[in-house]
Inverse folding.
C-alpha cells in the first residue's frame, strides 16, 4: 500500500497513517482530536485498537490523550476526565464516569 496515493485510502486507513506519522517523531505522547470521527464502525474499532495496542506496549510506552464525544470509546481509556465550561474534572476510571 505504500505506493498508493493518500486520496485513495479509506478514512480508517488515513487515520492510522496519521497516527503512524505522529509516531515517527519518536516521542512518547500523542494527542488525538476525534480520531474516529466520520469513520464507519469497523474503522472506528481498528483505530481504537491501534491506540490501545500502542499505549499497552511496555517496551516503548506511549501516552495518548484523545478528545471525543463518543462515550462508547471510554472503554478503551485508562482514565477519563470531562471538560465542561472550561474546567477539567478529576481523572477517574472509565467504568465510574458519569456524564453531568
Amino acid at each position: 500500500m505504500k505506493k498508493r496515493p493518500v486520496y485513495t485510502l479509506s478514512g480508517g486507513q488515513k487515520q492510522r497513517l496519521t497516527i503512524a506519522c505522529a509516531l515517527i517523531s519518536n516521542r512518547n505522547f500523542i494527542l488525538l482530536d476525534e480520531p474516529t470521527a466520520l469513520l464507519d464502525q469497523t474503522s472506528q474499532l481498528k483505530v481504537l485498537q491501534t491506540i490501545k495496542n500502542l499505549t499497552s506496549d511496555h517496551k516503548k510506552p506511549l501516552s495518548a490523550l484523545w478528545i471525543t464525544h463518543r462515550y462508547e470509546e471510554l472503554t478503551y481509556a485508562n482514565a477519563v476526565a470531562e471538560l465542561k465550561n472550561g474546567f477539567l474534572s478529576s481523572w477517574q476510571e472509565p467504568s465510574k464516569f458519569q456524564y453531568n
